[in-house]
Amino acid sequence: MTTPHDLRYSRTHEWVRVDGTRATIGITDYAQSELGDLVYIELPPVGRELRRDAPFGAVESVKAVEDLYAPVSGRVVAVNERLLEDQSPVNADPYGEGWMVVVEMSDPSELEQLLSSEEYAEYVAGSTH
Amino acid sequence: MPSTSLAAPIDAARAFAARLGMRPWRLIHTDPAPGAWNMAVDALLLAAAEGGADPALRLYAWEPPAVSLGRFQRPDAGIRWEEVRRRGWGAVRRPTGGRAVLHQHELTYAVILPPDVVAGVGVRPAYAALAEGLRAALHRLVGRSAAIGCGPGAPARSAPANCFARATGADCTAGDGKVIGSAQVRSRGALLQHGSLLLDVDRDAWRALFGDEGVLRSLRELAGAAVPFAVAAEALIAAFRATWGIALHPAPLSRAEHAAAERAAAHWSLGG
User: Fold this and answer.
1) pTM above 0.90, yes or no
2) Are residues B120 and A127, on separate chains, in Cβ contact within 8 Å?
3) I need a labelling partner for B25 at 20 to 30 A (CA). Which of A101, B159, B193, B267 fits?
């Protein structure tokens, strides 16, 4: 399981890459591994307002659906529409080509509530059995 | 990053199975009901589990018969809706993934688990652990010599419309046919897995709906005789108790739960 140090993480296994006031969001290597090969993904349209901790989309693998939860609030400014046709980048490159949405953050202070790489790794190690 | 193996991590499955008995379970029987109401009940039980409600096992049937689509399945993909309308069947969407199912002669089970029991278990270990209970139930019904297989298998990015056209890691097979098809949804750490145990199969109906009956295998075919719903239900309950050491307490839906399901049912209906 990899947890890049330049990212922030949520307890629902989303990652955030910050660039100024914009946040790129995807799911972690741990999440894609536990899900297995994705077969469907549902993402919000550009312009949708996301609210921290509220569902913003969903993924499916092996007939199991799981919601995606917004790690920060903001307006969606970009969507990785390639994933709608081909979900494999989420499994193959979760922190790169598997990015899901970019949001213009409405409250960057929410980043402080996310986990660092080390904290997320500890969280995963402690919560898995 | 390479794709992960399809084999379920054994340790994770065993640990999850051990947690299944940590709390008493609620046992819910509901009368045969329209599909939209059935889906509303499962969704409401999942929502309750998110809030920490006890694990639950619900057993139910569908009246009238209905077709259910998976959460993401497109309605226009290979299903003969004119047959659904002609026969007066229902049409609903499930909260879980997977492909279409005709719910006709079946025992439907739903396992609903709160976050402290799920504890982040992966999809494949969860299916593997729950499959042990399903396999045990099938062995009770058709004998231990029967060649029952439950998971793992390959998910498909390109799959036919009919859930029973092929078996995946979420399913139970007997010989060359699929006898239980299951699907999951996770929500805020809680889990709903529900599935169809085929008591009997009207193969003409499946062909009329999907153009092909797939790889169905019914309990009647496996057992060599009709298996009543009540007998299958008792076998499932006994198998779950024995496999995981769980305590199951009958607790019917309350009036408030019934009413909430009635209000929510329309959300799950596809309008037929």
Assistant:
1) yes
2) yes
3) B267
